[in-house]
Amino acid sequence: MSSIGTTDRTKEAFQELVRQELPGLYSLARRLVRDGAEDLVQEALLQGYRAFGSLKEQAAGGRWLRSILVNVFRDQLRKRARSVDEVAAGDLGDFSLYRTLIDEDPLPYSDSLHTDFMEAFGREDLREVLMRLPEIYRAPLVLRYMDGFATKEIARLMGTPLGTTLARLHRGRHLFERTMWAYAEETKLLRMGDDDG
Amino acid sequence: MGKTTAAIPCSDAVRQLWDYLDHAIAPEDQEKVEHHLSFCRRCCGELEFAKEIRQFLASGSSEEIPTDVKERLERFVEEL
Asked: Which of B51, B41, B1, B64 is nearest to B21 (CA)?
């Protein structure tokens, strides 16, 4: 569209970039939001198209589009929640999933308890555990450990000071472990083999 | 005489394990965790488990895009 000021050639280049990056973009959006991943990607593509002229290196296009998507997510988050409920570090206690597994011994016949526990979780279980975390903790965890963003970059993209980002990552990891355990108990994930006996 | 590294309790070591793996703590703290791991078997177990959780997270990073969603989004870009 001429009003946007992008020539046909750059439009073709943008379409090519989108074709390559669409699976990764959608996948990231699905990790950030429970519902509305497609809308999130669509808004990111619109903003990306408008700013495509500012992209200096084509090879960095994927990272650039993902950064735009995170910015869109951050803006949506700010609109939705005027204030964020931080979990106080003290509220997390000293829960350790590693120790809990040893103490509770949910797989008494296992020779490799911790590995077997992890292997009981499928892709959808992982997504469900992530979705149960408050967004302010889920996003840094996803960006750092699933998408490989550096902590400083996450701070910049999410518009939070580095110290806050580090604290949220720390709390996010704790919450993730606690939620994994709660989810496994609630869904009886570890008792699937019980009926065999 | 070689310098000695201050000992830290398990709770401190465990709290810093992910940051230790990320090299996101100060070099002296990195050293303290390392020193603790050199003699604490339980915390070595915590470390190995932290690595498994990180691998598990990383393994969930790629997901297929449903064909209908892909087609809708490609059409959206074509119509821009």
From this structure: B51
C-alpha to C-alpha distance for A142 and B76, rounded to whole angstroms: 27
Contact partners, residue A99, CB within 8 Å, separation at least 6: B46
Q: State the Cα–Cα distance between residues B23 and A56, nearest whole angstrom.
A: 31
Q: Answer with the residue of higher pLDDT: A73 or A55.
A: A73
How confident is residue A195, by pLDDT bands cut at 50, 70 and 90? very low
Domain A2-80 listed as CATH 1.20.1740.10: no
| Distance from C-alpha of A171 to C-alpha of A95, rounded to nearest angstrom | 11
Q: Which of B 16-75 lie inside 8 A of A, CB atoms?
A: 18-19, 22, 24, 45-46, 48-50, 52-54, 56-58, 60-65, 69-70, 72-74
Task: Enter the ipTM.
Answer: 0.86
Residue A146, C-beta contacts closer than 8 angstroms, at least 6 positions apart? A31, B57, B58, B60, B61
Judge residue A169's burial from the number of C-beta atoms within 10 Å of its C-beta, 0-12 exposed, 13-18 middle, 19 or more buried.
buried
Q: Which position has the token pair 């699905």?
A: A30
CATH number of A89-196: 1.10.10.10
Helix (H) or strand (E) segment spanning residue A2: none
